[in-house]
C-alpha cells in the first residue's frame, strides 16, 4: 500500500557478499509485497561483461519447504573516454636546400634534423581502463626514399612498445 524504506545489512557468508533486508515483521498470512531495489556495486572493472545476483526469500516464522530464489544477471558496461594528445618538438622544421642524406654515415646530423614526437594517452573517465592498445602509424618511407629516420621509441607509465623493424636501421 504505502512505501517504506527497507532496513538492509551487508555481511559476508562463505566468501560471498550477502545483503539481508528485513521486509516486515510480523507479516500477515497471504500478504503480497513488491520490492524495488537499487544496488550500487563498486570494483566492476575486472568483473567481465556481466554480474549475477542470487535473490532468495526466507521466512523466520515457520519452517518452509519453499525457499523461492531467482537469479538475475545484469550486463556490465564500462565507460571511459580516452583522449590522445600529440606534440612535435620543434613544431616546425625546415631542411636547408643544400642538405643531402649521407648514406652509411654514423653521425645523426647526416640523417636529418632531430624532431621529437610526443604522444600522451589520457583517460578522461569516469571508469578506469586496462589492456589498452595504441597503434601509431608513422610513415618512414616515401617510395624508396627515407622520409623520417626513426631513431628510438620510448614509453612511460607502465606501458610497453614492441620493437619497430624500421627503428634505427643504420645503428646511428
TrEMBL record:
Domain of life: Eukaryota
GO cellular component: external side of plasma membrane; integrin complex
Keywords: Glycoprotein, Integrin, Membrane
Glycoprotein in keyword set: yes
Domain spans labelled Integrin alpha second immunoglobulin-like: 3-76
GO BP term, pick one: cell-matrix adhesion
Chief location: membrane
Entry GO MF terms: integrin binding
Pfam families reported in the protein's UniProt record: Integrin_A_Ig_2, Integrin_A_Ig_3
Phylogenetic placement of the source organism: Eukaryota, Metazoa, Chordata, Craniata, Vertebrata
Location within or outside the cell: Membrane
Gene: Itga2b_1
Cited SUPFAM superfamilies: Integrin domains
Record domain Integrin alpha third immunoglobulin-like: where: 83-171
Protein's name in the database: ITA2B protein
Membrane-protein topology: Single-pass type I membrane protein
Source organism per UniProt: Pycnonotus jocosus
